[in-house]
Write a structure and sequence with these properties.
The complex is a heterodimer of chains A (144) and B (998). Chain A is an all-alpha fold and 144 residues long. Chain A has 4 helices and 1 strand. Chain B starts with a helix and ends with a helix. The chains are: A mainly alpha (144), B mainly alpha (998).
C-alpha cells in the first residue's frame, strides 16, 4: 500500500500551518490552529484506509469489497467532536474578552496561587511548631 | 455484537463480589469450619458504619455496646485456642479476583491468636473506659466512637491476614484512622500538626513497605504470607525487599529515626493514645517483624539493621522519658523505648528469645495501656498532667495509686511480672550456648535502657502520686471511680500473669514453640547470671532516680542532636514543599504557547529519533490519484498558510472554511459520502458560530507574541509538518496486514444495515459512540455555562405569552418581546403586521436589519429541512445519513431561523429547554444500552421489528434506530445550546451594552 503524495501534502500543510498559529498567545489563533490541525488529522486517518474502493455501503453481497469503513467511522465522530470543541473555544474566547473588558486589571492567577500555597505552608508550619513546642516544654532541665 | 473484554471482566468481578459468590477452598492440612473470621470482620465493618447513628441514640453509652462486642470476639478467640494449638492454625479463604489469583485469605496461628487477644482485650477495656471518660457533649463523639471501634476490627484483620495485599491494605487503613484519631481535637494546632506528622511518616514507611512486599511477592510468585515464608527466598532482591519492609515496620512502630512522631501523637485523647499508640497500632511493626523473623533471621541485613535501630531507639526513648514533666509524654517516650526493645528481641527469631519477646509484648500492652488510662483519670480529675502541679494524689486515690504502682513495677521489669521473666529469659539466652556478637550487643543495649526504664518508672510513680509540700493540693473535679475499672483490671492481669506464668507457657510460648523447643516459664531460675544482671539494673535504676537532679543536668549538657530527627523531618518536608513550588513555578508559567510548543517538540523529537535510529523504513508513495487532487491540495495548503498569517479575524475564519470544504471534497472523492456530508454541515455551523462571536470582538487579532519568536515558530511548524508527513508515508508503506475493515461488511450485514459506517456507530462500536455523545453533552453544558453567568436553564427568549402566530391571531393579544429593550418601534395591537409576517419574530428586529427575502426563504425551507433531517436519521442504517448528519441538518434549520429573525425567533422555533433535548437524547441512547439487560440480553443488543405502516409501507425498525435518535437529539441539543449562547445571549449583552452607552 502507498499514499497519494497530494493528500500527504494537503495533510502536512494544514498540520504545519495549524501548529504555527497554535504557538501564538491569542486564543482566536489557537482556535484557527485547532481547526486546521483537526482537518489535517482527519485526512491523515482517512489516508490510513489505504486502498481505494467503492463507498462502504453494501448492496446485496455482504462480502463485496469496499473502501475501509473503520477510519470513516472514527472520522465522523471526530468531526462532530471538533465542532463541539470549536464552539466551546469560541465561548471561552468570548468570555475572556468579556472579562477583560469589565476590568483593565487582568487578574493574575499565578500570584493568587502562590499566596494560597504560602498560606498552606504557613499553617502547617504553625501546627508543627505547636506540637514541637508542646514536646519541648515537657523536658525537665533539672532546675526544679 | 461485540463486547470489550474489560467490560466483561468488570461485570464478572462485580457479580462475584456483590452476589456473594463465596467459594470455600480448603488448603491442605488446615481444617476449615466456616468463614467465621471474615464474618466477624464484616460485622465490625457494619457496626462501625452504624455507630454514628447509635451514638445519636445512646450517647456515650454506645461504648458499652461496642466494648461488649469486642469482648465477645475476645472470648471467641479464646475458644479457638485449643484448635489452633492442635492443628497449628485456622485458615479461611474466599476467592475474590481469580484472574489475579487473589483471595481473601485469613489465617490464625499462635502468633496471630496472641496478637488478636492483645488487640481485642485491650480494645474492649479501652472502649469500656471511654464510656466514662467522654461526656455526651464531646464534639465529634460519634466519629471517634466509630473510628475507634473500626480500628479494633482493622487491627484484628491485620494480624490474621494471610495475604500481603490484605495486610498492606489494612496497614494503611490503620494509618489513616490514626491520623483521624490523633487529629480528634480539630481546633488545636498541636493536634493537627501531630496528626499530619504521624500520617506523613507512617505513609512514607508504608509506601516503602509496599514496594518491598511487591518485590518479595514477585520473587516467590505468591502473595500469600504463608507461601512467602515457606519459599524463604534469599538473594539481593530479597535483601532489598526486606530492607523496605523493615522501613515500613520501623516507621509504624516509631523506631529511630522515625521515633519522633509517637510522642507527638499524644495530642490525641488519652484512650486513643492508650490503644493505638501503646497497645495496638504501634505493635503492627512488631508483629510484622515477629512474623518474618523465624524465616529471615539468617538474612545478612535482618538482625544487624533491626538490632542497631532497636537498641538506639530503646536508649533514646528511655533517655528522653527520664526528663518529662508531662506524665503522658513520659509514658510515650517510654513506649518508644519499649518498642525498640520488642523489635530487637523478636528480630533474633530463635525460640527462647522469641518467647521472651512475646512476654514483653503482652506485658507491655497490659501495663502501658493501664498507665495511660490512669493518666487520663488524673488529667480529668485535676485538669493537668504536669506533675509540678500535682500533689497528694497517692492519698486521695489510693486504689488507683496502688494498681498504677503495680503496672509501673511491670514496666520496670521487677519480679514477679511478665517483663521480669521476659528479660531474664533474654539475658539467659544471649549469654548462653547460642551467644552471638549481635546477642552481646543487644544485651548491653537492653541492660542500659533497662536501667533508664527502672528510673523513669520510679519517676512516674513519684511524679503522679508523690506529695509535694510546696504546692497546693489540686481539687478533684470528676467522679473518676467508674472509669478506674479498666486500668485496674489491665494492671492486675500483668501481675497475675507473672505469678502464674508457668501455667501460661502453653499460650505465651505457643508461637515460640512453632520455631523450636522452649522451656516452661518460671519466675525463679535460681541464683544465676541473669538474676545478677537484673539486680544490678534495678540498683542502678534506683540510683539514677535518686540522683535525678544530677542526671538531668548531665542530660542538659550532652544533648545529642543526632537523635533529634524532628528537625531532619522538618527540613525534608519543608524542602519538598519548596521544591514543589519551584518546579511548579518554572514549569507552569501560564503561557499556552510554551505548553503547546513542548508537546509538539517532543512529538518531533520522538518521530525523528525513531526514524533515524530505526532500521530501514520503506518510503513508497504515488504522486496523485488524479490531477484535481493535487490542485485541491495546493489550494488548501495555500488557504491554510494565509489563514495562519491573516490579521483580520473574519479573513482567517473564511480561509479556514476553505480548508474545511476542501477536506469535505477530499472525503467525497475518496468514497466517503457520510464524511463529506458531515464535514460540509459542520463547516457551515462552525462558520456561523465563529461569525456570531467575532461580530462582538475587535476585528483585528491581538498581537501578543514577540516577532523575535517567529523563526522559532516557523521552525517548529515545518518540523511538525515534515514529521507527520514522514510518519504517514512510512506507516502506509510498511503496512502488511489487511484492515479489520474487511470483516465489518459481514458484521454490518448481520446487523441488518447496508451503510457500514453507520452500523459501526450505532451497533458494532456503539459503546464508543456512547462516550462521544457524552462528551458532546459536556461540551454543550460548558458552552452555556461560559455565556450565562447567572442562570443557564431555560429556553431562548420567547415572544410574550400566548404570542405564537395562531394564538395571537385568535386572541388578538399584545405581542411584545419578553425582555425587549432596544426594540421599541413595535406597535401594539398590530394584528395586521402579525398576520403578514413570514416569521413570527421578524418584527422584533430593527427594520434596517430585516430581509424579506431571507425571511421568506427560511419560512419555506425550515419545515422541509426538518423533514429531511428526520429522513436522514431513519435511512442512516442503509444510506448516507444517520443521527449525526440528521441532527446537524436540523440544527442548521434552527440556525437559519435565528439568522433571519433574531433570538426571539429561535425561542419560537425551539420552545424547549436545550438541556431537556440533550437529556432525552442521552436517556434514549443509554436506555438502548441498559434495557436489554432486563431481558437477559447483553447491553446494546439490538432487537428488530417488521411491520407495515400506511404510506410508508414495509417498515423494518430496530432498537439501533432508537440509539441513533438519541444521537440525533444530542446533536440538535448541542446546536441549540450554541445558538442560544453564542447567538441569543451575545445579542443580549450587546443590547445591554448599547443601552448602557445611550
Amino acid at each position: 500500500m502507498n499514499a497519494s503524495l497530494a493528500l500527504i501534502i494537503a495533510m502536512a500543510g494544514l498540520f504545519g500551518a495549524g501548529i504555527y498559529v497554535m504557538l501564538e498567545r491569542s486564543l482566536t489563533r489557537v482556535l484557527i490552529g485547532f481547526l486546521l490541525v483537526g482537518n489535517a488529522v482527519n485526512i491523515l486517518i482517512l489516508l490510513m484506509s489505504g486502498g481505494q474502493g467503492p463507498a462502504p455501503i453494501l448492496g446485496d453481497d455482504p462480502n463485496a469489497h469496499t473502501t475501509d469503513p473503520l477510519p470513516q467511522a472514527l472520522i465522523l465522530t471526530a468531526i462532530v467532536i471538533t465542532l463541539g470543541s470549536a464552539a466551546f473555544l469560541l465561548a471561552l474566547i468570548y468570555r475572556n474578552w468579556w472579562l477583560s473588558k469589565l476590568s483593565d486589571e487582568v487578574p493574575s492567577v499565578d500570584e493568587d496561587d502562590l499566596r494560597d500555597v504560602e498560606e498552606v505552608f504557613e499553617t502547617t508550619s504553625e501546627d508543627e511548631s505547636a506540637i514541637s513546642m508542646a514536646l519541648e516544654e515537657s523536658d525537665d532541665s533539672g532546675d526544679s | 455484537m461485540q463486547l470489550p473484554n474489560d467490560f466483561v471482566l468488570f461485570w464478572s468481578l462485580f457479580g462475584r463480589s456483590v452476589l456473594v459468590n463465596f467459594r470455600k477452598t480448603t488448603p491442605e492440612g488446615s481444617p476449615i469450619g466456616s468463614n467465621a473470621m471474615i464474618t466477624v470482620l464484616a460485622v465490625f465493618g457494619a457496626l462501625s458504619v452504624l455507630t454514628p447513628f447509635l451514638t445519636k441514640l445512646l450517647g456515650r453509652k454506645v461504648f458499652l455496646l461496642l466494648a461488649a462486642f469486642v469482648a465477645g470476639v475476645f472470648v471467641w478467640v479464646l475458644t479457638l485456642l485449643p484448635e489452633i494449638f492442635a492443628n497449628g492454625a485456622i485458615s479461611e479463604r474466599v476467592e475474590w479476583i481469580r484472574q489475579f489469583d487473589f483471595a481473601l485469605s485469613l489465617r490464625m496461628d499462635a502468633l496471630s491468636a496472641i496478637m488478636s487477644l492483645v488487640v481485642l482485650g485491650v480494645g474492649a477495656a479501652v472502649l469500656l473506659y471511654c464510656t466514662h471518660y467522654f461526656s455526651d457533649a464531646e464534639p465529634g463523639l460519634a466519629r471517634l466512637a466509630s473510628l475507634l471501634f473500626a480500628f479494633a476490627g482493622v487491627m484484628f484483620g491485620l494480624v490474621v491476614a494471610d495475604d500481603v495485599v490484605i495486610l498492606f491494605t489494612l496497614w494503611e487503613i490503620t494509618t489513616v484512622f490514626s491520623y483521624l484519631l490523633i487529629g480528634h481535637y480539630t481546633g488545636l494546632k498541636e493536634s493537627r500538626g501531630a496528626a499530619l506528622q504521624a500520617l506523613l511518616v507512617t505513609t512514607v514507611g508504608g509506601l516503602a513497605m509496599l514496594v518491598g512486599l511487591v518485590l518479595i511477592s514477585v520473587e516467590t510468585g505468591t502473595t500469600s504470607i504463608t507461601g512467602i515464608l515457606e519459599a524463604a527466598p534469599s538473594g539481593t532482591a530479597t535483601d532489598i525487599a526486606l530492607l523496605l519492609i523493615i522501613l515500613g515496620a520501623i516507621s509504624k512502630s516509631a523506631l529511630f529515626p522515625f521515633h519522633f512522631w509517637l510522642p507527638g501523637a499524644m495530642a490525641a485523647p488519652t484512650p486513643i493514645s492508650a490503644y493505638l499508640h501503646a497497645a495496638a497500632m504501634v505493635k503492627a511493626g512488631v508483629y510484622l517483624v515477629a512474623r518474618l523473623a523465624p524465616t529471615f533471621a539468617e538474612n545478612p541485613v535482618w538482625v544487624p539493621t533491626l538490632a542497631t535501630l532497636g537498641i538506639v531507639t530503646m536508649f533514646v526513648g528511655a533517655w528522653r522519658a527520664l526528663r518529662q514533666y508531662d506524665l503522658k509524654l513520659l509514658l510515650a517516650h517510654g513506649t518508644v523505648s519499649q518498642l525498640g526493645l520488642m523489635i530487637t528481641m523478636f528480630a533474633f527469631g530463635t525460640p527462647e528469645v522469641t518467647m521472651a519477646a512475646t512476654l514483653m509484648l503482652v506485658s507491655h500492652a497490659l501495663f502501658k495501656s493501664s498507665l495511660f488510662l490512669t493518666v487520663g483519670i488524673i488529667d480529668h480529675s485535676t485538669g493537668t498532667r504536669d506533675w509540678r502541679q500535682l500533689t497528694g494524689l497517692g492519698k486521695k486515690m489510693p486504689v488507683i495509686a496502688t494498681f498504677a504502682t503495680l503496672a509501673a513495677v511491670s514496666m520496670a521489669g521487677i519480679p514477679p511480672t511478665l517483663s521480669f521473666i521476659g528479660k531474664e529469659l533474654f539475658f539467659a539466652e544471649v549469654v548462653g550456648e547460642s551467644a552471638s556478637l549481635w546477642g552481646i550487643i543487644a544485651l548491653i543495649g537492653v541492660a542500659l535502657s533497662a536501667v533508664l526504664t527502672v528510673a523513669y518508672s520510679l519517676r512516674f510513680i513519684w511524679a503522679a502520686f508523690g506529695t509535694r509540700e510546696e504546692i497546693p493540693e489540686p481539687e478533684l473535679h470528676d467522679t473518676y471511680k467508674l472509669s478506674a475499672l479498666s486500668p485496674l483490671v489491665l494492671s492486675a492481669l500483668g501481675i497475675v500473669a507473672g505469678i502464674f506464668a508457668p501455667l501460661l507457657t502453653g499460650l505465651l510460648g505457643s508461637h515460640a514453640s512453632t520455631i523450636g523447643e522452649v522451656h516452661e516459664l518460671s519466675l525463679w531460675h535460681g541464683f544465676n547470671l541473669p538474676l545478677l544482671y537484673s539486680a544490678i539494673i534495678i540498683l542502678f535504676g534506683y540510683l539514677s532516680f535518686k540522683e535525678r537532679r544530677k542526671v538531668l543536668r548531665f542530660q542538659q549538657r550532652v544533648h545529642i542532636a543526632a537523635f533529634d530527627s524532628t528537625r531532619a523531618y522538618w527540613a525534608v518536608v519543608r524542602g519538598l514543599d519548596r521544591l514543589s513550588v519551584i518546579v511548579t513555578e518554572n514549569s507552569r508559567r501560564g503561557r499556552l504557547p510554551a505548553y503547546v510548543g513542548a508537546v509538539v517538540v517532543t512529538f518531533i523529537i520522538a518521530a525523528v529519533s525513531t526514524v533515524l535510529l530505526g532500521s530501514f523504513f520503506p518510503l513508497e508513495f504515488r504522486i496523485m490519484d488524479y490531477p484535481l487532487q493535487m490542485l485541491m491540495a495546493l489550494v488548501m495548503v495555500a488557504a491554510a498558510i494565509m489563514a495562519a498569517v491573516a490579521k483580520q479575524r473574519i479573513t482567517a475564519v473564511i480561509l479556514v472554511g476553505v480548508t474545511g470544504y476542501g477536506t469535505a471534497a477530499i472525503f467525497a472523492f475518496q468514497h466517503a459520502p457520510d464524511l463529506a456530508l458531515t464535514q460540509v454541515l459542520v463547516e457551515s455551523v462552525t462558520l456561523v458560530a465563529f461569525v456570531l462571536v467575532v461580530r462582538r470582538l475587535p476585528s483585528r487579532i491581538a498581537k501578543e507574541h514577540k516577532a523575535s519568536n517567529r523563526p522559532m515558530r516557523i521552525f517548529i511548524a515545518v518540523g511538525a509538518a515534515l514529521s507527520i508527513a514522514t510518519i504517514a508515508i512510512i506507516a502506509l508503506s510498511s503496512r502488511q496486514e489487511a484492515s479489520i475493515g474487511e470483516s465489518l461488511g459481514p458484521l454490518a450485514h448481520e446487523a441488518q444495515g447496508h451503510n457500514i459506517v453507520n452500523v459501526i456507530l450505532v451497533d458494532i462500536r456503539a459503546w464508543d459512540t456512547m462516550g462521544e455523545i457524552s462528551v458532546l453533552v459536556a461540551m454543550a453544558t460548558g458552552i452555556v455555562s461560559l455565556l450565562f453567568i447567572t442562570d443557564r436553564l431555560g429556553t431562548a427568549p420567547r415572544m410574550a405569552r400566548g404570542a405564537s402566530n395562531w394564538q395571537a391571531r385568535a386572541r388578538g393579544t399584545i405581542m411584545e418581546p419578553v425582555t425587549s429593550t432596544a426594540i421599541t418601534q413595535l406597535k401594539p395591537h398590530d394584528e395586521e403586521a402579525t398576520r403578514k409576517a413570514w416569521l413570527v419574530a421578524g418584527r422584533t428586529l430593527d427594520a434596517s436589519h430585516r430581509s424579506a427575502l431571507l425571511e421568506i426563504t427560511v419560512r419555506l425551507v425550515f419545515h422541509p429541512a426538518i423533514i429531511i433531517s428526520i429522513y436522514l436519521l431513519l435511512v442512516g442504517h442503509n444510506l448516507p445519513g444517520g443521527g449525526f448528519i440528521g441532527g446537524l441538518v436540523a440544527g442548521l434549520a434552527f440556525t437559519t431561523r435565528y439568522l433571519a429573525a433574531g433570538r426571539y425567533e429561535l425561542g419560537e422555533a425551539a420552545p424547549i429547554d436545550a438541556s431537556y433535548v440533550l437529556g432525552t437524547g442521552l436517556l434514549l441512547s443509554a436506555g438502548t444500552a441498559i434495557v436489554p439487560l432486563f431481558f437477559g440480553m447483553l447491553p446494546l443488543d439490538i432487537v428488530w421489528w417488521d411491520f407495515t405502516l400506511p404510506l410508508f409501507g414495509e417498515m423494518h425498525f430496530g432498537t439501533s434506530t432508537i440509539f441513533d435518535l438519541g444521537v440525533y437529539l444530542i446533536v440538535v441539543g448541542l446546536m441549540l445550546d450554541i445558538l442560544r449562547s453564542l447567538g441569543s445571549e451575545v445579542d443580549r449583552h450587546q443590547e445591554e451594552g448599547m443601552q448602557a452607552r445611550s
